[in-house]
Amino acid sequence: MFAYRRNPFTGAPSARRLMLGASLTLLLAAPATALHAADDAKPESAGGTDAMQTKNVDQTNPCFNGEGSIEEVLRACKVYIEADEGTDEEHVIIAHGNRAYALSAIGDVDGAIKELDDAIAIDDQRAVLYLSRARAYGVKKRYDDALADLEKTMELQPDSAAPHILRGKIYELQDKQDDALDEYTAGLDKNEKYVPGYKNRGTLHRSMKNFDKAEADFTKVVELEPANAESYIDRGWVYVLEDKLDEAKDDFEKALSIQDNNAFAIAGIGVVKSRQGKPTDGSADLSMARKLEPGIFDKIRELGVQ
């Protein structure tokens, strides 16, 4: 649920009408019916009860059924929170959380923080609320506040990888690369299948030119997410940087077999062809990639590829 590639904290799109539970990537890292556990831990480890259920609320209510637009969710959750009767504490917390989801998706991070403040005021023992607020603080570059919330997350849920991975991202933004690597490793020690940890650590290793370590991390991502085109593309660009062109070509072609017309995979094949002595074919692929995604060459240069 972490979309570090677009935004290290939210990855939230700006579209105003998307369906909760479908394509909307939101700030809180938990489904609308479960606000106990952080991203990668079991609900029962996060505060004494299992995931909250919505069976006692109206299943047609957009605040809880995951089927409303952003505007509908914001309105329905506000009505529920302000109702004089027919509510319970658990679902009031969920409503605040879902308003935070929606507000973050439309760029109102301050509003999301306020909703999370209100939820924490009701119950200050839910790890996911602190983790989510830490993400929001990160967006606002309030790093000290974010780090404080991550400490609280770890206190409440010591077996979770997620707060370590987010803390690593903050350390990266503070130019503390070695500390960031330590945090990513600490998170993966807690959960060896937590993909964001490998992606973040691999990306940092790549930027530090530790290409063998980056390759190892992205290979782990491929093992964990073999049906994800991005996994192969990430490793493919590391292969390019290592001048392992045959391996890179294989990864880019595999990515295209999963996702047609992926501009980064097409550009990768173009770079490989050009470096293997087929500049005409490579140029055609690169031109196609640029048509699909203008500005792609700048993004590739950011990877260290010249």
Automatic annotation (TrEMBL):
<feature type="signal peptide">
    <location>
        <begin position="1"/>
        <end position="37"/>
    </location>
</feature>
<keyword id="KW-0732">Signal</keyword>
<dbReference type="GO" id="GO:0009279">
    <property type="term" value="C:cell outer membrane"/>
</dbReference>
<feature type="region of interest" description="Disordered">
    <location>
        <begin position="39"/>
        <end position="62"/>
    </location>
</feature>
<protein>
    <submittedName>
        <fullName>TPR repeat-containing protein YrrB</fullName>
    </submittedName>
</protein>
<feature type="repeat" description="TPR">
    <location>
        <begin position="195"/>
        <end position="228"/>
    </location>
</feature>
<dbReference type="Pfam" id="PF13432">
    <property type="entry name" value="TPR_16"/>
</dbReference>
<dbReference type="Pfam" id="PF00515">
    <property type="entry name" value="TPR_1"/>
</dbReference>
<dbReference type="Pfam" id="PF13181">
    <property type="entry name" value="TPR_8"/>
</dbReference>
<feature type="repeat" description="TPR">
    <location>
        <begin position="127"/>
        <end position="160"/>
    </location>
</feature>
<feature type="repeat" description="TPR">
    <location>
        <begin position="229"/>
        <end position="262"/>
    </location>
</feature>
<dbReference type="InterPro" id="IPR050498">
    <property type="entry name" value="Ycf3"/>
</dbReference>
<keyword id="KW-0802">TPR repeat</keyword>
<dbReference type="InterPro" id="IPR019734">
    <property type="entry name" value="TPR_rpt"/>
</dbReference>
<keyword id="KW-0677">Repeat</keyword>
<dbReference type="InterPro" id="IPR011990">
    <property type="entry name" value="TPR-like_helical_dom_sf"/>
</dbReference>
<dbReference type="GO" id="GO:0046813">
    <property type="term" value="P:receptor-mediated virion attachment to host cell"/>
</dbReference>
<feature type="compositionally biased region" description="Polar residues">
    <location>
        <begin position="51"/>
        <end position="62"/>
    </location>
</feature>
